[in-house]
Design a protein that fits this description.
The chain is built from three helices and 17 strands. The chain has 278 residues and is mainly beta. The strands form four sheets. Strands 3-9-8-5-6 form a five-stranded mixed sheet, with no helix packed on it. It has a four-stranded mixed sheet with strand order 2-1-4-7, with no helix packed on it. It has a four-stranded mixed sheet with strand order 11-10-12-15, with no helix packed on it. The longest helix has 14 residues, at 75-88.
Length: 278
């Protein structure tokens, strides 16, 4: 619709009014509601650039780890393959690929991950454990989703001013992270799957406190503050973006993904970094 002032100027002064420039198309937005222990998510979505918006309505931390099932496999195949792999301590079946998804946010908060999806069968999973160590997936926290072909025009990925490169075993930031609403591109440049999840540190706490707590050497509650999300495990070469609001303070970048060689979380291999946001 033309601006009213432009219309008046055209009638009175004979001034030509320029048409407003068309707005660029944005990603499709899909909301995932996480509770204890289930996902509410559409059964089908169109392929292409998509922002997954994870709303944590549970009382525990949750993330939305997205897995693509190749070769026509279904969620029933995934369940049986996962059970077999866990019992035999074998690597995941070759028809499973890890493609990211929004990482953990504090109960009551929302996290996002933006990435491009190819048509196929997918499943959302929450790998985060309960206080007794039981992964949420073992409590039924998974949900199948089909990505349908999309005949519409391709949408370009937004530009991010900052990137985090995941390696074996480090986080490499392209620039210091500053306070405000920030969109961050995450790229897996390692030889195995990695993730990044970001949590604030309470005053007086450091990475050493967190590591000591993880190893059972520090008692009391988890020495972290608000969890701001990130991107869950991606296969080598994968990339996605997330957006979060950062206040000044100290934060941790963490990767809990199990190592391909010994099965231990990557934080045990040193994939944990403390940063300061100014």
């Amino acid at each position: 619709m033309l601006d009213r002032r432009c219309l008046v100027a055209g009638l009175v002064l004979g001034v030509a009014c320029a048409k407003p420039a068309p707005q660029a198309a944005g990603p499709n937005v899909v909301t995932i509601t996480a509770t204890d222990y289930a996902f509410s998510v559409p059964d089908t979505i169109p392929a292409g650039l998509t922002t997954l918006r994870l709303v944590n309505q549970g009382k525990e931390l949750h993330h939305g780890s997205l897995i693509r099932l190749k070769d026509g496999k279904t969620i029933a195949d995934f369940q049986s393959g996962l059970q077999e792999a866990m019992q035999s301590h074998a690597p995941p079946p070759p028809w499973i690929s890890f493609v990211g998804g929004p990482n953990a946010v504090t109960p009551g908060d929302t996290g996002t991950a933006t990435q491009t999806f190819e048509p196929g069968n997918y499943v959302f999973v929450c790998w985060i454990p309960t206080a007794d160590g039981t992964p949420h997936i073992m409590k039924g926290m998974m949900h199948a989703m089909v990505v349908k072909p999309n005949q519409g025009p391709a949408v370009a990925e937004p530009t991010a001013a900052l990137s985090i490169k995941l390696t074996d075993y480090d986080f490499v930031l392209s620039a210091p992270l500053t306070a405000g609403i920030r969109t961050v591109r995450v790229e897996n440049g390692g030889a195995q799957p990695h993730e990044v999840v970001i949590t604030a540190l309470p005053p007086g706490k450091t990475l050493q406190n967190f590591i000591a707590w993880e190893r059972g050497g520090e008692k009391g509650p988890l020495p972290t503050g608000k969890w701001l999300g990130g991107v869950v495990g991606m296969d080598p070469g994968g990339h996605a973006q997330f957006t979060a609001t950062f206040a000044p303070g100290n934060y941790l970048l963490l990767c809990f993904w199990p190592d391909a060689k010994d099965g231990k979380p990557h934080i045990v291999h040193g994939m944990a970094k403390q940063i300061t946001v100014s």
